[in-house]
Design a protein that fits this description.
Elements: H1 14-20, E1 31-37, H2 39-42, H3 53-62, E2 67-69, E3 73-74, E4 82-85, H4 91-101, E5 110-114, H5 117-126, H6 131-135, H7 137-153, E6 158-162, H8 170-192, E7 197-200, H9 220-328, H10 336-373
Parallel strand pairs: 1-2, 1-4, 1-5, 5-6, 6-7
Antiparallel strand pairs: 3-4
Helix pairs in contact: 3-9, 4-7, 5-8, 7-8, 9-10
Length: about 375
Amino acid sequence: MEQYSKYVFFTTDSATVAAQTPSWCGSSANLTLTPMGASIVWGHSSSDGNGFRLGLYNLLNKQGMQTTMTGMQYSGAMSENHHEAYQGKTIDEYNDVSYHSGVYDLNPNVILILVGTNDCWWIQSDKTDNPRFQSGVEAAERFRNLLGSVRERAPDALVMASQLSRNTVEWCDECIRGFNSRLPDVVADAAAQGQTVKMVGMYDAVPAEHIGPDGTHPTDYGYQLMAQEWYSSIVSAKKELCAELAEDQASTSSSTSSRASTSSASSTTSSKASSTTSATSSSASSTASTSSSESSTASPTASSQASSTASSISSSTASATSAATTTTTSPTVSDGNEQAAVAETSVTASAAGTVTSRQALWVLVPLALWALGA
């Protein structure tokens, strides 16, 4: 295929297709949702400790998507307060912790990822002059590795990879902007390798005035703006990907029906060809039998005619020979002249008899050969 398709079906059986349909697909699908990240996902600095998670949970359930929040961590006043967030972790640190925490054993079918701000903060702490670190490129490459781990451990999950939210500290925000500019390529590469992943444009979702005094964590209203952005992105991704899935299923069904029709037509053609071949064979056999019968009938007739002709020629030859012999032995002897005449007559008759015998052989031999060949 020219473009990688995540859904390939080899049957139109409804039960099989339903089993292969992602569990997150459908307007009323049950979502097992795992928020992944660091302190912003934790809900740091929010008054209720829920951050964006409660607002998102309410929006999803209001639209009929029954949602269960999962993770090995929990924080906030909400009842569904589980998540997979570890405060202060960089991308590599987070990848290592979450890979072994057991969160993937909970089988999440929707995973939200927002992590990387701490990578940009550590640039200042490490006093590094490496432009790759300062620009956020290196952090984006580490995020690529994190997506690989998620794909390995949760290959069927819908993954929502978020940009980093803005920071009011300029040097940190510069790194964040570099990370965000690189993220579309990272996400596109992951999708090309078969991961079901979409990007979330979180940077512009929360304006600077809704970032708290520490320059990093949103205000309560800022967290609600984040909840709305997550929700809109999830709904949009589900709509797009489920439509793609429906097209793949329809195409597969049409292709299967077409192959079945072609196979049926081929079978009918083969049957007709077999019948025609059988009839032709039978006709050829009948013709050969008739020809053989006619040949058998013709052979005795030819032999009989050859025999009759040979007998007739033989009789004529015998008569001629007999006459010649009679003339030769005729007792008419009166004087020398008469004896010479008789002798000449005898020789002539004898020669005539000999010639007649040869002519008979010339006729008999070809006739006999023709009769045998017929």
